[in-house]
Automatic annotation (TrEMBL):
The modification N6-(pyridoxal phosphate)lysine is found at residue 675. Phosphorylase is an important allosteric enzyme in carbohydrate metabolism. Enzymes from different sources differ in their regulatory mechanisms and in their natural substrates. However, all known phosphorylases share catalytic and structural properties. Keywords: Carbohydrate metabolism, Glycogen metabolism, Glycosyltransferase, Phosphoprotein, Pyridoxal phosphate, Transferase. This is Alpha-1,4 glucan phosphorylase.
Length: 828
């Protein structure tokens, strides 16, 4: 029963009805209070981290206020909402973003200055949650920022990995991994909700029979039970709502091991408990072969089961009926990682809530929507029937049932046996397995790709049969980024300059940046623009000197490639370019080369042999170039270790050139490309992913294009590609490739880079050699453009002016209109 006294106090006494922000004095009082009473610290003993934690607690209070207000209003209006299911999130540091959302950055800086503390140093203390691998996880977090800002009734579910993505160090040029202990100093942003907990079952057997009401029913007698406990992190939108990122942590259920306790084997019981808790210990790095990774499948089911049970609880709490679930909720599947949800919802509805199959299937198919993020065949998840059946026997039965009904429909449509086999949820060839992308497609009412090109290829290739069957099911939502985090928070000087010229409306409507076009030719504005870039480059140079030990002249062009290390992203094509410049300078032919610093960062999956060798190659080239007095005045190469959101926020504002050079048809969208351009870097890129749309927006004269199109890539394959021909015909390329096996880069070791050399000469699956000359020619154009600073500044301004489309606010608006069909509600 609601406590009316408390409720009235809440609304009338200003607890949650006050204002959004805080004054300088309020911030100071609250900060001091949290330092002493929240942490119990006397000033003499308080560390910088204590101060950070105290400030985080002070701000969290205000963030929670917005969350409570939003939730109250969603409930009052019985709003239709979204549950976003993602196995990964990369929120980045929270404090800076929350200060912006509350519009109290200036006040906080002043409040801290009054107690002799520096806001930047405090911000620097924050350890970010690395709960994702790369683009997909960061996208989920950008979407949360937009959902909160736009007032979308929503909740985001995921996994509270104790160890996030590994920490990367570079030793002797090689990547070394260590565990990411992001929780070591505690996490002031999260609130544990021990009462929001669900049991998750694994293993055992199913038994069918007639229940007490005389109906056919299936019981799943599992042999393992684990508890999922909710940990909530409030995410605040800009001057708007607060929504919750609810992450599940695995725990042992208390009563579970009673029999063992009673038999006196205490240690065995403890061991079981520890085994349960292992489930959410660690995030799996992607690009690893997940085949047979039992723990990964367990993680996926674990978080899906908790999230669906929680969604149903929230739905029923509003007094709604279960068969209306799809009227009130869309559950968005972020890739196939949570796609087991299709079978789990059927199980919950049919087995636990006793709904008839047809009705349950109707609800299920109208509840889910699925976002695909990749066409790479190796990344399309499949789980072997054997493993799946052992862990989730009931789900296997349900998937068989869904499949058999689906295939019957196809037979009625007179589909050929071949086509039916292609579309089946079960792959029969090789080891029988479940195709999770097919399960997600069949079980969803909408399927979207993440850029116009990717969505087209998805329909034409990977899910072609399904797109022909259900053309209306397929749609596109081009990815977007949080411009508030990646411009306002990360590049305050540029943001202020922009606001000086066009006001601040662009914070909530990025299309307003268009107003900058009027100043693109204004020399005074250009100078201020480039001066800010230079200051950002100085700051990055300082970081590089400290963490990578390389001194860089900030007036050089900063040519940057930061992203996961993967062959399709072609970091090694960039290396070939650097070596071409090196050789030209050595031959005395370098006069048209503009002084350039090549900056790389990114993690390689620990088991990805080629990616790790590419890092070693970059480091070796860095050694060669940086130590050679003939070239090191003109070229510098650096690999900055441990790329994460925090580092990214330093790099984008300091970049001149953004490298987006993946082989066309491979990068589903890319989002780094948007972050660079938003900070005024010019792009060199292929017609891949969202590059295509960026170029359309900024104008082809302001974008450096090279390389094959997707169609030309396909044609090249069909014609029978022989990379060695390019090696033989292009003498410069030959000289460069020979360097890889000459020992020149590796202290005489001719074997070290042979795998890369041989791979390129024999297979070259990502067509580096075919695209090489086009890339080199394009780079010559770039170096020439760099020599005309006014021209460069103009292009840079025009890039920023035309980034309106790439705000995650626009993406979320698209999701609302094309998929979610709901009404935003902004909290006051
Ligand atoms: C994947 C795709 C990217 C895409 C993101 C977000 O990234 O092209 O931009 O998802 O949709 F490959 P990773 O998670 O693999 O970095």
């Amino acid at each position: 029963t609601p406590n009316k006294k408390i409720e009235s106090y809440f609304s009338s006494n200003g607890i949650v009805s006050g204002k959004l922000g805080l004054s300088k004095d309020e911030i100071k009082d609250s900060f001091l209070e949290k330092t002493f009473y929240g942490l119990g610290r006397i000033p003499a003993l308080a560390t910088q981290n204590d101060f950070y934690t105290a400030m985080a607690f002070a701000i969290r209070d205000r963030v929670l206020r917005q969350f409570v207000r939003s939730t109250q209003q969603f409930n009052e209006k019985d709003a239709r909402g979204v549950a976003y299911l993602s196995a990964e999130y990369l929120p980045g540091p929270h404090l800076g973003n929350n200060l912006l959302s509350l519009e109290i950055i200036k006040e906080t800086r002043e409040a801290l200055a009054e107690v002799n503390l520096d806001l930047d140093e405090i911000l620097d203390q924050e350890v970010e949650p690395g709960l994702g691998n790369g683009g997909l996880g960061r996208l989920a977090s950008c979407y949360m920022d937009a959902m909160a800002t736009l007032g979308i009734p929503s909740i985001a579910y995921g996994i509270r990995y104790e160890f996030g993505i590994f920490k990367q160090e570079i030793r002797d040029g090689w990547q070394e991994e260590s565990t990411d202990k992001w929780l070591h100093y505690g996490n002031p942003w999260e609130i544990v909700r021990p009462e929001i907990a669900y049991e998750v079952h694994f293993g055992g057997k199913t038994e069918s029979g007639i229940d007490e009401k005389g109906n056919y029913s299936v019981a799943w007698n599992a042999d393992t039970v684990i508890k999922g406990v909710a940990y909530d992190t409030p995410i605040l939108g800009y001057k708007s709502n607060g929504i919750i990122m609810r992450l599940w942590k695995a725990e042992a259920i208390e009563s579970f091991d009673f029999s063992i306790y009673n038999s006196g084997d205490y240690y065995k019981a403890v061991e079981k408990k520890m085994r349960s808790e292992n489930l959410t210990k660690v995030l799996y790095p992607n690009d690893e072969n997940l085949q047979g990774k039992e723990l990964r499948l367990k993680q996926q089911y674990f978080f899906v089961c908790c999230s669906l049970k929680d969604t149903i609880r929230l739905h029923l709490l509003q007094g709604r009926k279960l068969d209306q679930l799809h009227d009130k909720f869309t559950i968005q599947l972020n890739d196939t990682h949570p796609s087991i949800a299709v079978a789990e919802l059927m199980r919950l509805l049919v087995d636990e809530h006793k709904m008839e199959w047809e009705k349950a299937w109707h609800v299920t198919r109208h509840t889910f929507a699925y976002t695909n993020h990749t066409l790479l065949p190796e990344a399309l998840e499949k789980w072997s029937i054997d493993l799946f059946g052992r862990l989730l026997p009931r789900h296997l039965e349900i998937i068989y049932e869904i499949n058999s009904r689906f295939l019957n429909e196809l037979r009625e449509l007179q589909y050929s046996a071949n086509k039916i086999a292609r579309m089946s949820l079960i792959e029969e060839s090789g080891e029988p397995s479940i195709r999770m992308a097919h399960l997600a497609t069949v079980g969803s009412f909408k399927v979207n790709g993440v850029s116009a090109l990717h969505s087209r290829l998805l329909k034409e290739q990977v899910l072609n049969d399904f797109a022909e069957l259900w053309p209306d099911k397929f749609t596109n939502v081009t990815n977007g980024i949080s411009h508030r985090r990646f411009l306002v928070v990360s590049n305050p000087a540029l943001s202020d300059l922009i606001s000086e010229k066009i006001g601040r409306d662009w914070l909530t409507d990025l299309y307003k940046l268009k107003g900058l076009e009027a100043f693109a030719e204004d020399e005074d504005f250009q100078k201020k623009w480039m001066d800010i870039k230079l200051e950002n480059k100085k700051a990055l140079s300082k970081h590089i000197e400290e963490y990578a030990g390389v001194k860089i002249d900030p007036t050089m062009m900063f040519d940057v490639q930061v992203k996961r290390i993967h062959e399709y992203k072609r970091q090694h094509l960039k290396v070939l370019h650097i070596l071409s410049l090196y050789r030209r300078i050595k031959k005395g032919e370098g006069e048209r080369i503009s002084p350039t610093a090549f900056i790389f960062a990114g993690k390689a999956a620990p088991g990805y042999f080629m990616a790790k060798r590419i890092i070693k190659l970059i480091s070796s080239v860095a050694d060669l170039v940086n130590k050679d007095p003939d070239v090191n005045g003109k070229l510098k190469v650096v690999f900055i270790p441990n790329f994460n959101v925090k580092l990214a926020q330093r790099i984008y504002p300091a970049s001149d050139l953004s490298e987006q050079i993946s082989m066309a048809g491979k990068e589903a969208s890319g989002t780094g490309n948007m972050k660079f351009a938003l900070n005024g870097a010019l792009t060199v890129g292929t017609l891949d992913g969202a590059n295509v749309e960026i170029r359309d927006e900024v104008g082809k004269e302001n974008f450096f294009l090279f390389g094959l199109t997707t169609e030309e890539v396909q044609q090249t394959r069909q014609d029978g590609y022989r990379p060695s021909e390019y090696y033989e015909q292009n003498k410069e390329l030959q000289g460069i490739l020979d360097m890889l096996i000459s020992g020149e880069l590796s202290n005489g070791d001719t074997e070290l880079f042979k795998p890369i050399f041989e791979n390129l000469l024999q297979q070259d699956p990502y067509l580096l050699l075919k695209d090489y000359q086009s890339y080199i020619d394009c780079q010559e154009e770039i170096h020439e453009a760099w020599r005309k600073p006014k021209e460069w500044a103009r292009m840079s301004i025009l890039n920023v002016a035309n980034m309106g489309k790439f705000s995650s606010d626009r993406s979320i608006q698209d999701y609302v209109e094309k998929i979610w069909n709901l009404q935003p509600i902004k909290a006051d």
